[in-house]
Amino acid sequence: MSTTYLIKNASVLGGDPQDLLLRDGIIAEAGALGPVPGTVVIDAGGLIALPGLVDLHTHLREPGREDAETVDTGTQAAALGGFTAVHAMANTDPVADTAGVVEQVWRLGREAGHCDVFPIGAVTVGLAGERLAELGAMADSAARVRVFSDDGKCVSDANLMRRALEYVKAFDGVIAQHAQEPRLTEGAQMNEGELSGVLGLTGWPAVAEEAIIARDILLAAHTKSRLHVCHVSTAGSVELIRWAKSKGYPVTAEVTPHHLILTEDLVRSYDPIYKVNPPLRTAADVEALRAGLADGTIDAVATDHAPHPQEDKDCEWAAAAMGMLGLETALSVVQRTMVDSGLMSWADVADRMSVRPAAIGQVDDLHGRPLAVGEPANLVLVDPNAKRTVDRTGLASLSQNTPYQGMELPGAVVATFLRGTATVLDGKLA
Q: Which listed residue (304, 312, 348, 383) is catalytic?
């Protein structure tokens, strides 16, 4: 028999305190509740209750790179970060471009049990950008794939992108594009600008991202199919997405936590921990991304959690892998940049980190639901007054490539519940 939890005095979405009774996988009662026999009582005074977070962009590395991460360790990190669902990217080895591979990842997630894992299928076979993968077979598989992406590589062929958008309309799928014009980014190492010239590193121009976004917005409008833009990083990209939404086009977008807080100035150290795709941009870009997230132009915060073994980062800049960890620190970064700054409320955080991501990924029957009676008991309790100094050696991920090492961040996940079962209690894996 599953444990019944009585959460006392939680501030739901930052509002007035109330009690929540979690029983049989749902929120059975809510309000001012008296003692309930046979329950485990959690004193949530001073804590914020949010619906379980949903990540649209997670690299779990399994199968193929279990030295960097596994579905088990990655979802442990997710639970500790307050996530009850993650979407696992397709750039595994073998690539998740068939029903067999996406079902393998889905089943590994179910076996681990720390959070729900929804595989993202590749758009093209082997991420090669030459011919469409088995989109329909992946959609019909046990994994029920609805999001497709060649993330790490751009679907740069306009005709192929059009065909992909047309194909997924049959099952209301979405193409999540890694917007990077490859001909404009050959050998690129960091954001293109004055600093790249000073440091002698090949520049990565903003227009390489913006050109693909502009093209794909028009393709989405033409096909009337759903486009999702991954890890938006420039002010120009925000303006393009804002224009698309003003036209009513079926376009959504995400921003990573690191693009909300870190800038290209960190590259002065030549520390490969700051090497990421797309690259860290300027302070003006960061400001525009925060504004776009606050006003809803950007729909979601997505971690782009990208674990790498030490040898892939502990080398010279040019040879280092691109990517950073993100699952265990995402909520704290959002609190620091968006909530504590007054740009967003906790209800806005729930919208951008749970409600909208769940809708985009078509898992909103289970996740991103209101914290109300009869709804699935997927939720997280957060202490907004806590402070912590990030220590990479204490992270659940197999990798340690966090850009926040030694940084003090606000907030702490106290408990996470997946369908009423505690995956995290007292800030530790349950």
A: 304
